[in-house]
Design brief:
The structure holds two protein chains of two kinds. By secondary structure, chain A is an alpha/beta fold. Chain A is about 50% helix and about 5% strand. Chain A has a five-stranded parallel sheet with strand order 1-10-9-8-7. Chain A has a five-stranded parallel sheet with strand order 2-3-4-5-6, covered by helices on one side. The model of chain B has no long low-confidence stretch (mean pLDDT about 95). Classes of the chains: A alpha/beta, B alpha/beta.
Chain lengths: ~550, ~130
């Protein structure tokens, strides 16, 4: 049956006319660049026509929102039915301070919490570790024990508000998510009522951020899968992993690499869960994704759309998933931090707004808009609320929510989406040929790919091929900073004092028993989270838990490149 | 500082800072400019100084985007002095509020490269440090 939407004869005519136009009208203009390309290096033509979509079959290639291949959106009503979640990242200092910021953002209309942890917490260290004193409370909130977790969410209705825990590294997630769950149970909220997401991404531990003394890739991956398995059985509304493509991109990836890596990661997790005897449709519906919105507007939109189509096809064909929810590529977007400039920081309001618009035109489920001061410091209350307002303006004033996938059918966008899909599938094949994602981390392939892309990007800015306003063009010499910067509240003393008190008060024998049980669980290859949700109640510190894991699994030096 | 030799530089990230992109891109650029770069990963001041002496470097490049720079970068200079090392210069790159730049320089950091710094400028600055 012939289903192409463009008639072959007419296409031929369009092709001829386009060539004529290019020769007679377009090419005789002066001052044209020789080459136009997207941020990831795809050639861009001056004009796109139906000829670029020859063989295009609407029902096969696009279809309808809420239906396979989901390219037009994962929900049948998209933003008419439910707008994207305004999920602004927040976290700094001790939990008492971050709790106030969460409440402030919720009062201002934020519809979800997005909690980020400080560097020591993310890496599995407690605030009283001698190596971390300079980083406590920086970049996020410091959490050491279940008691801090109680303070962090005190007075916040966690049975109603969905909470994203930016527990990037599995070694951090295993403690933090367990503390979060233990605290909920303590408040009388059963785990099956909790809605939220934890990041829990082993690439964040072993490839996209590199720390001293990280778990080896296989162990980090195993710990992350323990949380997925636990949630599948006990917390069905919780997304136990959020494949952090955003961070891969921040580290230097291109757009197609970003999507290829998150999908390769979802493949690795799915294979592991199947090995553990869990049916595909009982966990795949809870795999969630986290992507960046970078500078190249159309390329980003094409990226989100291509991701949906590829993922649907892989989950169907490779894993025989049947539940439509298992086929949906659901994602959160953060506007690209790496695109922000310290120069003329208020320009970042405009940048982040364009990024957010791309996310929404690409069908995101939730969005964080970066604050204008993030290239300089942790956001202030004013910059955070401005970022939230950017989302509210986009939703309420621009009309972009009125129709679904409004750019679908654009000759350029559909063509770019197809090009993106081909590129992503090529990278996925390469990762498969390397033996899968965990192997590709172990042998340093990922590190090399990211480093090379980052290096190329920087030289493009350096050579002026990539204009960045305020940095390599439209500069202000001797600029006076027009904004007030955030200063971190005292955290180290506060956390150390709490730890001192807790360590005196807690039952030492119970602590020793819990830590011993954790070690034995690691040795026996048991599910760590099943044990941990109970164990953290004895006020183990995060550092103690991490050390117990490292004693059994060892530590890994990521390869240099 | 030694002359007529390739510049040796130790690149490290301070403390717990998770961002490696900047330090890695700069390390590659310096290497491509003909310098010998030793990439030390994340380190605390005591270890940085120990590594710098052991590796006999001309320059230490510190990187941090976490905000820990005021607590750790001056400490590196202080420990070098304590060890009576006077021929190793310390430079810093990363996210630094403008007000902290003079403070870092006063503490003995010879150059500070904030966000958006040009790779060529970093290279030529480090080359000129060797010649001084």
């Amino acid at each position: 049956m012939k289903t192409e939407i463009f008639d072959k004869k007419r296409l031929k005519e369009i092709k001829t006319k386009t060539a004529e136009w290019e020769e007679n009208s377009y090419s005789c203009q002066k001052k044209l660049k020789k080459k136009y390309e997207t941020l990831s290096g795809f050639d861009v033509k001056p004009l796109y026509t139906p000829d670029d979509l020859a063989g295009f079959d609407y029902l096969r290639d696009l279809g309808f929102p809420g239906e396979s291949p989901f390219i037009r959106g994962v929900h049948p009503t998209m933003y008419r039915g439910r707008t994207w979640t305004h999920r602004q990242l927040a976290g700094f200092g001790p939990p008492e301070e971050t709790n106030k910021r969460y409440k402030f953002l919720l009062q201002q209309g934020a519809s979800g919490i997005n909690g980020v942890f400080d560097y020591p917490t993310l890496r599995g260290y407690s605030s009283d570790d001698p190596d971390v004193y300079a980083d406590v409370g920086r970049g996020g909130v410091a959490i050491d024990t279940v008691d801090d977790m109680r303070i962090l969410f005190d007075g916040i209705p966690i049975d109603q508000v969905s909470v994203s825990l930016v527990t990037c590294q599995p070694i951090c997630n295993i403690s933090m998510q367990s503390m979060y769950f233990a605290n909920a149970l303590d408040r009388g909220i059963p785990l099956d009522r909790l809605a939220g997401t934890s990041q829990n991404d082993f690439l964040m531990e072993t490839a996209t951020t590199i720390a001293p003394g990280v778990l080896p890739p296989q162990a980090s991956f195993k710990v992350s899968c323990d949380a997925i398995e636990f949630c599948t059985k006990n917390a069905p509304r919780w997304n136990p992993i959020s494949f952090a493509g955003y961070n891969y991109r921040e580290a230097g990836c291109t757009a197609p690499q970003e999507v290829a890596l998150v999908i390769a990661h979802a493949i690795a997790c799915s294979e592991e869960m199947l090995k553990r005897g869990i049916e595909i449709d009982s966990f795949a519906n809870r795999l969630s994704f986290f992507l960046s919105a970078h500078n190249d507007f159309f390329e980003e939109i094409a990226k989100y759309r291509a991701a949906r189509r590829i993922y649907c096809s892989i989950m169907k064909k490779r894993f025989n998933a049947r539940d439509p929810r298992s086929l949906m590529f659901r994602f959160h977007v953060q506007t690209a931090g790496v695109a922000l400039t310290a120069q003329q920081p208020l320009n970042n309001v405009a940048r982040a707004a364009y990024h957010a618009l791309a996310a929404v035109l690409g069908g995101a489920q939730s969005v964080h808009v970066d604050a204008y001061d993030e290239a300089l410091c942790t956001p202030t209350e004013l910059s955070s609320v401005t970022a939230l307002r950017t989302q509210q303006i986009l939703q309420n004033e621009t009309g972009v929510t009125n129709t679904i996938d409004p750019l679908g059918g654009s000759y350029f966008l559909e063509s770019l989406t197809n090009r993106m899909e081909t590129e992503i599938c090529g990278i996925l094949d390469e990762i498969d040929s390397l033996g899968g994602l965990v192997k590709a981390v172990e042998n340093g392939w990922i590190h090399k790919e990211i480093a090379e892309a980052a290096y190329k990007y920087q030289w493009a800015i350096e050579n002026g091929e990539m204009p960045i306003v305020g940095v390599n063009c439209f500069k202000i010499e001797d600029e006076v900073l027009p904004i007030e910067l955030f200063s971190s509240p005292e955290t180290l003393k506060v956390q150390k004092k709490k730890l001192q008190i807790i360590k005196k008060k807690r039952n030492a024998a119970e602590v020793a028993r819990s830590l011993d049980a954790i070690s034995r669980c690691c040795e026996k290859n048991g599910n760590l989270m099943e044990l941990m949700v109970g164990a953290v109640k004895s006020h183990l510190t995060e550092g103690e838990i991490s050390q117990a894991l490292k004693r059994v699994y060892g530590v890994w030096d990521p390869p240099l490149f | 500082m030694k002359t007529n030799q390739r510049i040796r530089i130790l690149m490290v990230r301070l403390g717990m800072d998770a961002h490696w992109r900047g330090s890695m891109v700069v390390a590659r650029a310096l290497r491509d400019a003909g310098m010998e770069v030793i990439y030390g990963g994340n380190q605390m001041p005591m270890n940085i100084v120990r590594m710098a002496i052991q590796e006999d470097v001309d320059i230490i490049g510190l990187s941090s985007l976490s905000g820990n720079h005021m607590m750790l970068a001056p400490e590196v200079v202080k420990l070098l002095k304590k060890e009576k090392v006077h021929d190793i210069k310390v430079v810093f790159g990363g996210t630094v509020p403008p007000d902290d730049v003079p403070k870092l320089k006063k503490a003995g950091i010879v150059e500070v490269f904030g966000p958006g710094s040009s790779l060529r400028k970093i290279i030529s600055c480090i080359e000129s440090l060797k010649n001084n």
